[in-house]
Amino acid sequence: MTEGKILIIDDEKDMVDNCTRILSFYGYECFPLYDSDLFEDFLKKTSPDIILTDIRMEGKDGFEILKRAKEINSDAIVILFTAYANIEDAVRAIKEGAFDYLPKPFSTDHLLTVIKKAMEFKRLKDENIRLHTCISELREREKIVGNSVKIRKVLDLAEKIAKTDSNVLLYGESGTGKELIARFIHKLSYRSKKPLIPVDCSTIPENLAESELFGHEKGAFTGAYQTKKGLIEMANGGTLFLDEISRLYLPIQAKFLRALQEKQIRRLGGRELIDVDIRVISATNLDLKELIKKGVFLEELYYRINVIEIEIPPLRERKEDIPLLVNHFIKIFSGKNQKNVLGVKPDCMEILERYDWPGNVRELMNTIERAVSLCDKELISCAELPEHIVNYKGTTFIPSSSLPYKEALKIAMEEFHKNYIKSLLGESNTLTEASKKAGIDRKTLYRLIKRFRIRE
Question: Do residue 159 and residue 294 come from a single domain?
């Protein structure tokens, strides 16, 4: 295993060859370069850990090499050496970002010491970046509340594809948190230092859509008093998040498709083509394939934006996350409203878990904000919940047809038992009364309550 890769640059062949011989002997992979004008091509081909370069050379000198290396990669490790050693050069080298400075002639030991020090610095920096990335990933993941199998699968997939540059299509009902997932992907991507520009396609008027997305030049239309960048151009280098992309007008879809294909845009009223480098994350709550059949969505655009598809489950399919979400929102709104609300009563939590949440997480959040505002005790009670939620009896549960029959039947039976017994207990004053209504003995009812973990 190599100790590291070193690009050695000097127009003196003997100097390059001697450094290469010494460093190769000690396990380093060396790339000799005698013409500094070829530096950039060599840098791309070799991706060295360290650049070791003379200062005085024909063609590019060492300071030009240092400057360009830092422009290409701000973390580049460059070590300068020269036979014309002076304090001014040394100070300038360090000020401009050189790792170290070697005056000629230098001994083998001196060379090895500086190289080892540079490699250790790189190792520590890489480890620091790796740990920082891990911590960032954990922090971003913590922002999305939930521990159900379904939401973990979504986060695992989002984390995996974040490191790629593929376009992503998020499917999910309104209120499921599509923008949160989009931000999660952006934050974990290499584009995270550049902006994420969110665009709600449903709110852009047809007559302004082209100007909003592509920008316009001064005088392009009445009222265009100055040149304006569009949202696509603003996202350059980063991520463009198109929410409700199904609402994008057909002529704009065609122009956007061309922009994605050519990686260039032209502002409204402009002639110049502008290069854009963006990743597109789109979101929709509609079936785009059906819209394609109806002729209101371009098939080519669909395949361009749907390289990776992520389906975000509705809250009713991950009800085990409701207690976590409830406590999360209580903490947020208690602090915001300077309240001392600590949680919800058990019967209240049962009602929240029973409700199907057609508005998903957004509806739950609004419900908890309302409850915290109305609550004057430590625990939220049913009195603080909207009447339609309290009176909700539930709907028929149908397991996914993708499951084997026996497994689907088992899940459906469990759901039936839970809903039936909860309803039975809610309409009875005692277990004895409930067992008589159900036509089963009291012990059997008690065993069912324990088996399905139903709060009495």
Answer: yes
